[in-house]
Amino acid sequence: MCLSIRRTCVCGKTEAQFMHRDNILPEAILVNLYCPACCGQADWDGEAMTEDGGWILEYDMEGARFLLWDKGMAREVTPDILFEEGYCSWNGLTPTDLAERTRLHASLAPLLQGDRLTYINALKKTMITYVNELKAAGWRKAQHV
After folding, report:
1. By CB neighbour count within 10 A (0-12 exposed, 13-18 middle, 19+ buried), where does 76 fall?
2. Which of 90, 110, 127 is the last residue in one of the domains?
3. Alpha-carbon distance 59 to 57, whole Å?
């Protein structure tokens, strides 16, 4: 089970949704979140930060390493591992993925009044296009879909 968390960036303008794989790490493990508008405020620290799509995530790496070690993870823990393996990462492919998918589904909802196969094919085409756009934009989690 994963806990879904909403977090506002440092400048307070944008909200992102996170998941914490297996609920091992607490919400506080994400020290700071910088959106593309406020990422210039971040003092880059590659030992505690990772970047995706112009967003910067800053983790409490000492806490993360201890909690993952306590759960039996013997290998080195880096910010990229926390992000890529979902220990503290977007809930979806981007910070706003769930809201965007909801919007896309709602835009196709009128098709449900007609032929279901038409709806399914439109949904499939829309989602493939959406993910391909994310891949082209460089979103890290989309690269693995």
Report:
1. exposed
2. 90
3. 6
Phi-psi label, residue 86: left if phi above 0, alpha if psi -120 to 50, beta otherwise: left
Longest dimension (CA), the chain: 55
- Based on the fold, state whether residues 66 and 106 are members of the same structural domain: no
Tens digits of residue pLDDT in 22-71: 999 999 999 999 999 999 999 999 999 999 999 999 999 999 999 999 99
On whether both 49 and 7 belong to a single domain, the answer is yes
CA separation (Å) from 115 to 3, 110, 111, 118, 121?
36, 10, 7, 5, 10
* Three-state SS at 121: helix
Domain carrying residue 82 = 3-90
Q: What is the DSSP letter of 142?
A: G
Arithmetic mean of pLDDT, 126-145: 97
Both 35 and 80 in a single domain? yes
Tokens 């196709």 -> residue: 108
Distance between CA atoms of 112 and 100, rounded to whole angstroms? 19
